[in-house]
Amino acid sequence: MNSQKSKSRRWQVAVHEAGHLVAAEVVLNDKGGAVIVDVNGGTEGQACVDVGNPPRSFKEALAIAAGMEAERLAGFYDAPTLPPKSVHTVRPVAMDVPQERSSHASIVPSTNSGPSDAERIARWCCEHHPYKPEVWVSRYHWAHCTARLFVRKHARAILDAARELYLTGVRITKTVNVLSQEGQQ
Fold first, then answer.
1. Domains of the chain by residue range
2. What is the average pLDDT across 49-70?
3. Residues 29-40: what's their mean pLDDT?
4. What's the rounded Cα separation, in Å, for the pair 176 and 2?
5. CA–CA gap between residue 158 and residue 177 (Å, rounded)
6. Phi-psi category of residue 9: left, alpha or beta, with phi > 0 → left and psi -120 to 50 → alpha
7. Omega into 54 within 30° of 0, i.e. cis?
């Protein structure tokens, strides 16, 4: 039962992080990466996309909320079957993360990785609107309802990314061609 529970949690985390990745790619034109790791019986995940804390725009809030809303898909779709020797350890991950992404420089999950998605959304809802709880609630529902519609529309892409993340522990959509960058200078 515990093994089944950990597989279920791993799938939930994979779908959650895939929601962030696909939303960032579609809405922000940001190709990032994600990693999930099984540590001490628990599963941690981290997406590396260019989103502020708190989010700087509605689009960034949507990319955060998409992870939370994508988790619902995990309950409707079965996790892929892990190969006999599954990847459950941290593999070295090399990503070129620009300096302006210093808050996202570490892609390896940590229990102290900063505020939760819910807290980041809450900060965005309240930003620039002190003492206006009706605005906070409106912004919260706006972000989550839009994210729910986004997840429905992009469910196939989210599930494809989640399958790769679940099976390998890593998904990187950002590619850096150093030679072509040097040639442009």
1. 2-174
2. 92
3. 81
4. 40
5. 25
6. alpha
7. yes
Please report, to the nearest 10 degrees, the dihedral formed by the alpha carbons of residues 138, 126, 23, 88 taken in order: -120
Q: Which residues contact 63 (CB under 8 A, 6 or more apart)?
A: 20, 23, 24, 27, 28, 30, 49, 51, 55
Mean pLDDT of the chain: 79
pLDDT single digits (tens) 110-155: 445 678 999 999 999 999 898 999 999 999 999 999 999 999 999 9
3-state secondary structure at position 48? strand
CATH class entry, domain 2-174: mainly alpha
Question: For residue 48, which of 89, 15, 10, 20 has the smallest C-alpha distance?
Answer: 20
- Distance, CA of 113 to CA of 47 (rounded, Å): 11
- The pLDDT, as a whole number, for residue 3 is 62
If we measure between CA atoms, which residue out of 44, 52, 64 comes closest to residue 101? Answer: 52
Query: Which residue matches tokens 């986004």?
Result: 150
Q: Is the pTM for the entire model greater than 0.85?
A: no
